[in-house]
């Protein structure tokens, strides 16, 4: 069994205009096993990085002037990078406490197309290959009535379709800092909230 230890070091730096920090990820699996890392925010893509056992990858950042900074990372390890974990590496929760992500876990050669909307916001159209992820963050409105739904297509020719309720305020405590993940798979769509076990939620093509 392979163990991937991820250590996040947040070094707060305060100035009159902005704060920021540093994030470091360490490969402490075992000799001969590599770690591959890809971290992103809404505005910055930190690129792909591979480290040997004992190595580390880190980067510095500045908080957004509106305090809405969020970085998430995808990490692979194990033989042929067969083990994967995705997580929020840093989030300034003052403005954007809720994060929704859609992962494609179908099979190689399949695509995922996603279009998410609320009453007031259209998040646009996004296409991802196998292993990819699309995510967005937002803040619940003061009335606790936020609702986001997503149209999702998957398959080699995007032949399967389903609409999902990606987030609805009444399902969660109003002050919850939620991390909601959706896994797009061949047999349907699964949900995980704040790192909990995946639970089946939707069949494809509106099947019961």
From TrEMBL:
Keyword field: Secreted, Self-incompatibility, Signal
GO BP: rejection of self pollen
GO cellular component: extracellular region
Major site of localization recorded for this protein: secreted
Signal peptide per UniProt: 1-20
InterPro entries in the record: Self-incomp_S1
Record's subcellular location: Secreted
Keyword Secreted among record annotations: yes
Keyword Secreted in record: yes
Source superkingdom: Eukaryota
Family: Belongs to the plant self-incompatibility (S1) protein family.
Protein name: S-protein homolog
Species the sequence originates in: Brassica oleracea var. oleracea
């Amino acid at each position: 069994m392979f163990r991937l230890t991820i250590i996040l070091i947040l070094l707060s730096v305060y100035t009159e205009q902005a704060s920021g920090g540093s994030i470091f990820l360490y490969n402490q699996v075992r000799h001969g096993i590599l770690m591959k890392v890809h971290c992103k925010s809404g505005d910055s893509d930190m690129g792909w990085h591979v480290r040997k056992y004992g190595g580390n990858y880190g980067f510095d950042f500045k908080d957004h002037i509106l305090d809405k900074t969020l970085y998430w990372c995808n990490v692979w390890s194990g033989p042929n990078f067969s083990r994967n974990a995705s997580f929020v590496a840093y989030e300034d929760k003052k403005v954007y406490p809720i994060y929704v992500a859609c992962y494609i876990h179908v099979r190689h050669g399949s695509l995922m197309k996603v279009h998410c909307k609320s009453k007031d916001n259209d998040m646009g159209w996004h296409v991802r290959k196998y292993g990819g992820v699309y995510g967005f963050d937002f803040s619940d409105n003061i009335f606790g009535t936020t609702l986001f739904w997503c149209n999702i297509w998957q398959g080699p020719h995007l032949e399967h379709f389903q609409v999902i309720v990606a987030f609805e305020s009444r399902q969660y405590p109003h002050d919850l800092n939620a991390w909601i993940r959706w896994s797009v798979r061949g047999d349907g769509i699964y949900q995980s909230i704040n790192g909990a076990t995946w639970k089946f939620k939707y069949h494809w093509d509106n099947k019961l």
